[in-house]
Design goal:
The chain is an alpha/beta fold and 390 residues long. It contains 14 helices and 14 strands. The longest helix has 15 residues. The radius of gyration is 23 Å and the shape is globular.
Amino acid sequence: MSKQTSSDNDAIYLVGGGIASLAAAAFLIRDADIPGHNITILEESTKLGGSLDAAGSAADGYVMRGGRMIESKYLCTFDLFSSIPTLDESKTVTQEIFDWNETMKTSSKSRLFRDGHQVDAPKFGLSEKHVLTIERLELEPEGMLGRSSIADQFDGSFFQTDFWYMWCTIFAFQPWHSAVEFKRYLGRFTHMVSGFNTLSGIMRTVYNQYDSMVRRLQKWLEARGVEFQMNTRVTDLGFQRNSEGYTVDRILCDRDDHKEQIAVAEKDFVMVTVGSMTECSSLGSMDSAPVLNGKSIGCSWNLWEKIAAGQPQFGRPGNFTAHIDESKWESFTTTLHDPTFFQLIRDLTGNVPGEGGLIAVGGTGVEARESREAESNGIVRPRSATQAGD
Ligand SMILES: Cc1cc2nc3c(=O)[nH]c(=O)nc-3n(C[C@H](O)[C@H](O)[C@H](O)COP(=O)(O)OP(=O)(O)OC[C@H]3O[C@@H](n4cnc5c(N)ncnc54)[C@H](O)[C@@H]3O)c2cc1C
């Protein structure tokens, strides 16, 4: 099967229906003048949006795997959504986000609880040595950091600072995570650091990101003729080697349990989102814990492994897939049927709903001491940290 395009333009196949592909499709149409009907998005599930999910009802409960925090330097996001209207077309999504964040500015009075006490605008508590290490990490080339972990770079006292509690709960870092990743986040979010203790500068969409971003973008793309092929799991790509490197000549997929091949012509393009934070995730319930799935439940990891097998220029998925215990995460959504808990949180934090945000709960002195002892015995334990945002 090959896509028949009705213009001189090439066919473009985007694998995965998350925000990466949706945004790519919109940029191709808006900025590269590619007609929408030349673009096909292949998505293994029945819904677009990938990690940006949210669903449910007041009666049955709501579920969303994560909530997104954004900030004023999400320049590509704001640029893209300045062309995408809200469903009622009263304004652009970007305008809606800016208007909303004028009304509701994030200013947490309870970013951190330690030893059971609220810490208002916590100090970072960094020693000179910690600051020097942070500065060194900012400057040191990634190649030199290699496969080292954050714990390899700092001594144990760093992981007891208020800075670390706030850092690890906003970005979901653990001491055993990559020092390179830590460095990248430092670089990306340095301008936000002064507001870390109150979350100032954090912006939000009005609704969850499925309703605020995905639905609107989907409507815009549909109106321009983009084809969405759902229930279509891409299982492999066929490669041709030529003088310029590698070219994809076919896409292999399982569609509604049938195996199919899409022929890719020489002038066509294939763009693949590999890896995913939510691929293979599972949902628990009030009565059952979520099941820890292997990497084969979805196809994102398997596809990347197939593409990269013997072809290291396509990355090393094993860095993720072989370390599930060190990279897995858990989140939960609560649906409350009366306002008691809501009011308790409001009174405890001193913030009206929507004004606060992440609340990190730091360990007690005893736990901190135990952690240090465990580390000196070569055991690295996760610290108690709640509500990771990213
Ligand atoms: C809990 C949580 C909190 C987060 N917080 C933040 C935050 O505060 N700020 C922020 O900027 N970001 C945050 N993120 C990250 C952000 O959500 C992701 O970076 C982004 O949504 C990834 O989009 P994507 O399109 O690259 O991938 P995904 O959203 O993972 O989409 C991939 C899509 O491809 C499909 N797919 C995969 N493999 C195949 C295949 N072989 N064939 C067909 N379809 C396939 C999947 O079904 C999925 O729909 C958070 C993520 C999580 C999980």
